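Cytochrome oxidase subunit II copper A binding domain-containing protein
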Amino acid sequence: MITLFNLADLATLPPTVLNWQSVFNMYLVLGVSGAIFAYGLMFFYILNGRRKSSTGGMGVRGGGRGNLLTLIVVTGIVIAAFIAGVEGNSFMWNSPQNLPTLTITVHAYQWGWNFTYPNGYTSTDTLTVPANTTVILNVTSEDVFHDLGIPMFDVKADAIPGQWDALWFVATQTGIYPYAIRCYELCGVGHAYMTANLTVLTPSEFSFWYAHHGST
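Predicted structure tokens:
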């Protein structure tokens, strides 16, 4: 995981991973800032109260300014967290327009996946895609509820009978990734084995592969 303290090779990370990591980093900053403020305010009141008590004062009374400051800081943190969440989700709702696009239809079933390409070719339990391409998966189910997830891209989509959901991702590194695609909805006795492999090819390799896998 890439955090504020680990900035290794950001260029190779998929944009969906960078998106959610930026949201996580924002929440981390807000959480740490809120904790520092809360503890700082608490110790301020403790020390201020002790100082006034030792000099015969009345101690801390009221705290109107402190309460107002607390309200402002907390409100700011909540608003910033809300904006970060909205921006993160908005990014996932709109696939990149500056890259080639490949749209694939996915039919989930107990307990596997069928991937149908624009030319009609259907692959069972193996998804082959080109690198540096916006891949859009339109997902549905043939039987019960499923949930298609690809952890390496931080994306998920519900697979519901009679309905369609969608997700997108951009693979930045070629390779073969066994069990990269999984079901995240308990769907029966074979749920744990409902996986699929992911193969990422260079664009030229994918063009060759695609040309040799016609309609079936």
